């Protein structure tokens, strides 16, 4: 189970016009009954999106809000920096018969574009973006059939750790998005690597020695 932003690409959100998308998203959410004071307390549009789901389920207009954000994500897409080792990691996992899931708060269109650009057939991975139905991570709605004891979540944030905990799987952290080793371990990371290259070298050594 791989995160998208922080594993496959670097800081995707920094290329999004946060001011414009937040303004448009907040307006649409307030018009549909969200509390104004609650909306004011969030700057990050992804935090606004998270207000649409929780233990109670998912808001009926979630897909509408998701589409507003997606328009800005698609504009930013062509400036995204892909991790140079991402293709190598995906090929290694696929060639060793691993089922690869990509679980992300970005939409399927964005993830599929990057995966295709890496030269990885999209039918070789299971893409679980926020818009495929059900609550996105850290909930496990989109991962029906995944056995937690057979899964490993790889990500760069505490949200990925919460997903692993909810799934009952192992969590491996990457300290590529500002989260410290201590913070990632606080959500039960069994190991933390500085970057994808360091993790990949470890995996390659394990494969070669097995």
How would you summarize what this structure contains?
The chain is of the alpha/beta class.
Architecture overview:
The protein has about 210 residues and is α/β, with parallel strands linked by helices. Helices cover about 45% and strands about 15% of the residues. The chain is built from 9 helices and 9 strands. The protein has helices spanning about 20-30, 35-40, 45-50, 60-75, 85-95, 110-115, 160-165, 180-185, 195-210, and strands spanning about 10, 55, 55-60, 80, 100-105, 125-130, 150-155, 170-175, 190-195. A 3-stranded parallel β-sheet has the order 7-8-9. The chain has a two-stranded antiparallel sheet with strand order 1-4. The chain has a two-stranded antiparallel sheet with strand order 2-3. Helix 7 (about 160-165) links the parallel strand 7 and strand 8. Helix 1 (about 20-30) packs antiparallel against helix 4 (about 60-75). The two termini are about 20 Å apart. The mean pLDDT is about 95.
Tally of extended strands?
9
Adjacency order of strands in the biggest sheet: 7-8-9
> Spans with pLDDT under 50 lasting ≥5 residues?
none
- How many helices in DSSP terms? 9
What overall form do the CA principal axes indicate?
globular
- Secondary-structure-derived class: alpha/beta
What is the mean pLDDT? Answer: 93
- What gyration radius follows from the Cα positions, in whole Å? 17 Å
Outline the biggest β-sheet: 3 strands, parallel
């Amino acid at each position: 189970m791989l995160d998208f932003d922080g594993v496959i690409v670097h800081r995707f959100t920094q290329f999004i016009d946060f001011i414009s998308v937040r303004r448009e998203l907040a307006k649409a959410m307030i018009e549909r009954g969200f509390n104004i004071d609650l909306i004011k307390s969030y700057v990050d549009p992804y935090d606004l999106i998270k207000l649409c789901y929780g233990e109670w389920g998912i808001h009926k207009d979630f897909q509408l809000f998701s589409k507003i954000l997606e328009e800005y994500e698609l504009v930013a897409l062509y400036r995204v920096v892909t991790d140079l080792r991402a293709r190598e990691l995906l090929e290694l996992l696929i060639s060793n018969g691993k089922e690869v899931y990509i679980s992300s708060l970005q939409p399927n269109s964005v993830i599929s574009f990057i995966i295709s650009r890496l030269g990885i057939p999209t039918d070789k991975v299971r893409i679980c973006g926020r818009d495929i139905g059900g609550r996105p991570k850290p909930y496990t709605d989109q991962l029906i059939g995944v056995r937690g004891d057979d899964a490993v979540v790889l990500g760069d944030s505490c949200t990925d750790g919460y997903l692993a905990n909810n799934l009952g799987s192992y969590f491996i952290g990457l300290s590529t998005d500002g989260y410290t080793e201590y913070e990632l371990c606080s959500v039960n990371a069994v190991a933390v690597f500085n970057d994808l290259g360091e993790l990949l070298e470890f995996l390659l050594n394990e494969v070669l020695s097995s």
